[in-house]
Amino acid sequence: xxxxxxxxxxxxxxxxxxxxxxxxxxxxxxxxxxxxxxxxxxxxxxxxxxxxxxxxxxxxxxxxxxxxxxxxxxxxxxxxxxxxxxxxxxxxxxxxxxxxxxxxxxxxxxxxxxxxxxxxxxxxxxxxxxxxxxxxxxxxxxxxxxxxxxxxxxxxxxxxxxxxxxxxxxxxxxxxxxxxxxxxxxxxxxxxxxxxxxx
Amino acid sequence: xxxxxxxxxxxxxxxxxxxxxxxxxxxxxxxxxxxxxxxxxxxxxxxxxxxxxxxxxxxxxxxxxxxxxxxxxxxxxxxxxxxxxxxxxxxxxxxxxxxxxxxxxxxxxxxxxxxxxxxxxxxxxxxxxxxxxxxxxxxxxxxxxxxxxxxxxxxxxxxxxxxxxxxxxxxxxxxxxxxxxxxxxxxxxxxxxxxxx
Lengths: 199, 197
Description:
Number of helices of chain A: 8
Number of strands of chain B: 0
Shape of chain B: globular
Radius of gyration of chain A: 16 Å
Low-confidence stretches of chain A: 15-19
Mean pLDDT of chain A: 84
Strand content of chain B: under 5%
Strand content of chain A: under 5%
Number of helices of chain B: 8
Number of strands of chain A: 0
Mean pLDDT of chain B: 82
Order of helices and strands of chain A: HHHHHHHH
Radius of gyration of chain B: 20 Å
Distance between the termini of chain B: 50 Å
Oligomer: heterodimer
Structural class of chain A: mainly alpha
Order of helices and strands of chain B: HHHHHHHH
Largest sheet of chain B: none
């Protein structure tokens, strides 16, 4: 366990190319922030995997995982505002998506504490990888607030639609969720290899 | 007169300066397109992936969905080996062999235990993935390339499953088994150099 934690911390601390917000012309700071998770494929992958994990075991219970996700993503986003955090290495992001995708592919339900840890790590990774490079304090606050709300809305939506599919009596819908999980695993494995190859 | 005008119009269109439609493998969209097209540009890969879907449908549930789940994951593992530069022996021959074996399995309507089918599919998937991994364009966006690559592979399985579902009808079985024979023939073609990968 200690070794796993130290590997995780090391992966977080690796210097990485910042996937920071870029200014989208004609769009205000809040909306730029809100759209940021959707425009960052690594974040989309983690959100998809976490949403599948959350919605795959109906009835949908959002309180604990969502509160952990909200607080950890807020911490991560706040870390970026301090400007000393180096960003998250793509291998760490791929590793998180891989773990969550594998759980979805196996349709495995984690105990509450492990589930909380997974959502916490995922949220912290996405949050601390969503820094704003330019602009004053007001711009940064608005953009990060948009990102934070966007993350919560996307995760809730994904979990809701996954739970809708999982509740259906048609077995192929549940299988579809597992296939989606296996595709996330496959994509993450390749991304992990690319990232490690570049290290 | 009309013919002359048409001829002039065609000549003018042909003479228009156009931007080059060259391959773009950079950026998010370029990476996705490049990854998506990669499994679709090799006949040896296409037939093997379709064969997995066909065989899965022939074996029925749970093989129908388990094999297409196993294949992309193990193929990605093989792809990772290729990206990391881990060598595998006789990759092209094993890919050709996969077409033969999987095609024959469909043609003969083989029904081995599920774990044997999964191991066989997984074994060949490593070689398919390795070939794709070593051919990765250096400039491609890693994550969108991987997404396009996995989605295209999944869709090939799905097309195999769709055709494989014809086994419900007697004439459908003939169609599916004939497709298996055709796949095995293509595999032989690649193995003996009649087709080029």
